[in-house]
Specification:
Number of strands: 16
CATH superfamily of the largest domain: Bira Bifunctional Protein, Domain 2
CATH topology of the largest domain: BirA Bifunctional Protein, domain 2
Radius of gyration: 27 Å
Largest sheet: 8 strands, mixed
CATH class of the largest domain: Alpha Beta
Structural class: alpha+beta
Strand order of the largest sheet: 1-9-10-11-14-8-7-2
Number of helices: 13
CATH architecture of the largest domain: 2-Layer Sandwich
Helix content: 40-55%
Number of domains: 2
Order of helices and strands: HHHHEHHHEEHEEHEEEHEEEHEEEHEHE
Length: 422
Amino acid sequence: MLDIRLIREQPDFVKSRLATRGGEDAAKIDEVLRVDAERRKTETVLQQCNADRKRLSKEIGAKRATGEATEEIEARVREIGEEVARLNEQTSAADEQQRELLLGIPNLPHANVPAGKDANDNPVVRSWGEKPELKDPLDHVALGTKLKLFDLERAAKLSGSGFICFTGPGARLERALIQFMLDLHTREHGYLEMSPPFLVRRECMIGTTQLPKFEEDMYGLEEQQLFLAPTAEVPVTNYHREEILAASELPKKFVAYTPCFRREAGSAGRETRGILRVHQFDKVELVKITTPETSYAEHESLTADAERVLQLLGLHYRLIELCTGDLGFGSAKTYDLEVWSPGQNAYLEVSSCSNFEEFQASRMNLRFKDADGKNRFCHTLNGSGLALPRLFAALIETYQRADGSIAIPEKLQPYFGADEIR
RNA sequence: GGUGAGGUGGCUGAGUGGUCGAAAGCAGCGCUUUGCUAAAGCGCCGUACCCCAAACGGGUACCGAGGGUUCGAAUCCCUCCCUCACCGCCA
């Protein structure tokens, strides 16, 4: 969340940066300032009362020791006590209100993020490879059905629409991709592999900004007060929550494969054909915890690490930068990686690489000790490396052959154990 | 799930109602002594927040979390969370 001190000291700057996102957050800033001023006023009075009570209580102790009467002071302290209780309630209510307001205000876009209204204004940063030349390519649903790589109808029988059941060579290809990506990131890019819990506490979901704003998109277990993680970002970034790390151990680089659970409320009809938008999918996720000084360099290298997957698999892609109006709630800067899908005749988002700066760290109280011994918030970053179903779709569509079989890219063959599917 | 023990500062560990934000030791930082190493002595050494133009200034809160009792709670009571041990159940 945003630093209340920054809001206090430079409200106009904060408002103008938020305005580039296109929302109406200026009113929230005014509201939070009002609550903050009120809160500090009562807090000062409260602290004065507490000081009085503390002093007088000690006096009672001293007088009792010498046998002096204390009834009068006791009565006074009791009065102050009532006042304290009242003010206490007021301050903690204001505290809570302030935190709630702050949790609902999005991050400031980094100064160099291109201004824009929506996805149409996202500039292409670079692209790699070429669109494959295919005559009447089948899309992944046709291919997958024909070669029995997955079964969407039977998956719906199990869990409803929006679920996939990979089968036979499809299941094996999925697993091969996961293994391939984990090996690449751990062996060549220096990430530490994690296999975290998939169910997480509410505080974690607040820490990485899924809550409180996007609760309707999350699956939760009401009774147990746990949520199904919509991405490994949640358990992995929160791994060090409430900790003070040594500057020397930063940056920390984690890679984790997990299933991801998303309700996708309100997205019915959009990109819902086949396996492109589902309620449960697998993903390999990259997470970094860094110092503020290095986070943007680490952001570039994290993005490059994700791109490497597509390069090694020989899949055409482009990298776009999200403009201010399209930026996610907690992000200061984001690159989206889009792979080419011959079947859709479109680019599919397979990774979103973001630098959250201290937005998440402040929510989860994740800090490090700097060279001067001061505790400062870390910066957190993450990006998919990559999301499986769309990668799967782009891969089988790109490598389909005229005879209906699918070639397996060379780098993947050792993992898949064959050079084609037919 | 049951029973029992426990959760105090970076660590170890005292503290069972008053002057305790908390003894002591270790680690860390600074200074002094010393030919070097070692050792010794002295001092500093938690976090968050509030007031102040600012300070090596003043203040409040925090002893797992939240409530309660009391003039006053690390200390007493209740609820919850977590850790450990044993038992039960289980992949």
